[in-house]
Structures are given as structure tokens and as C-alpha cells.
Amino acid sequence: MTTLDAQLRDEVLRLLERTGERPAPIVRAGHPVLRAVAHPYDGQLQADELAALLDVMHRTMRAAPGVGLAAPQIGLPLALAVVEDAGVPDERVAEVRERAPLPFRVLVNPSYEPVGDALSSFYEGCLSVPGYQAVVARHRQVRLTGADETGAALDEVVTGWSARIVQHETDHLRGTLYLDRAELRSLAAADEVGLRWASEPRPEAASAALGFTLPT
After folding, report:
1. Of the four listed, 22, 32, 41, 73, which is most buried by Cβ atoms within 10 Å?
2. pLDDT digits (tens, 9 = 90+) for 151-170
3. Is pLDDT above 80 for 199?
4. Active-site residue 11, yes or no?
């Protein structure tokens, strides 16, 4: 194990000791770890340590609540993320956003590349940028590669809202926040007005009111 690997393992063990059975604190925009490229996960942890870390990440994501969490968001510069989305009860919203439920899964060293040219634009938020949301144009379909927590290879095409989640969390591992890709004229506080914009199946009223263009 290299010195860097040992340092990363020590960081994880300290976090696990501090956190116990509680969710971990989520770091916010301005923390350098959110702007660094995460180190590839290459077995720096023992199997039980990895399982404990993923349990903390899952617990933290659910408590927030969110649909994804990358290790840098709890201060760890490792290329690990967890995702899970129960979907939405509104059938119209689910249809327009292509938001099918996404069972819990772990992404290890994930990467993505677009499949086709289609983009979709919807409001998006981030646990590390609380209180705000903005419209982000994302690839409608991406090819996800990487591995799961067992080391099994991932190579699949992901569509719709699940593709959005994959892109958002993988971007975190590259030091990219959703605001870097956002239509900044759409930026809205998570108050009565902003939540109304975000509740639209597609942000057409927000586009007209705030003066930004949605891709066709």
C-alpha cells in the first residue's frame, strides 16, 4: 500500500469512528475536496471497512434526503458513489422526466459517455449546495462504465432521470458541481416560487418567466 493509499484509508477510518451509526456531515460548496479529482478506488480498504463506508454513505444520502451521494461530499477524495431513487408519485412528471425508480446501487470508479445527441433539461439540486436549484441540460442517455462494490464490471446504457443522477454523481468525482453546467438564469431558491418552478414536469413556465431557453 502506498503512502497515499494509507492516508486515504486513515481518513475513512477516522470518519467511521466519528460517525458511528449516524449520518456523516455533508461538506458544502467551497470545500476543496469538492473541486478535486477523486482518487480511484483500488482496494485501499478491507472488505468490512468498505462495507461500513458504503453503509454510512447510504444512510447519509437517505437522511438528507437525496438520490445520490459521492464520497467527496462527506470529505473523502475517493471515486465512490451511491445512488437510489424511489421515483415520483405524479405519473405525468414521471413520464416527462423519464423518472423510473432506481434501486440502490454502488458505483466504483464510474465514468460515462453520451449515447446519441439528445439532451434533457430539468431543475436539479445538490446536497452540497443547499437551498438552491437550477436547470441543467444533461445527456438523455449515457453509457455507464466502472464497477460495483464486489468488483464486478459495469457497462450499461442508462436513460432519463437515472442517467441524470449518474452524471451528477460522477461529475462530483471529477471536481465538477452541477452549477458548472447550469443555466444560471434559472437559478432559484428552494422557496415557494422556486419549488413551483421545480415541480413542473418540464420547466417551461420558469423558462418564460426567468428568460432562459430550453433545448428543443
Report:
1. 73
2. 999 999 999 999 999 999 99
3. yes
4. no
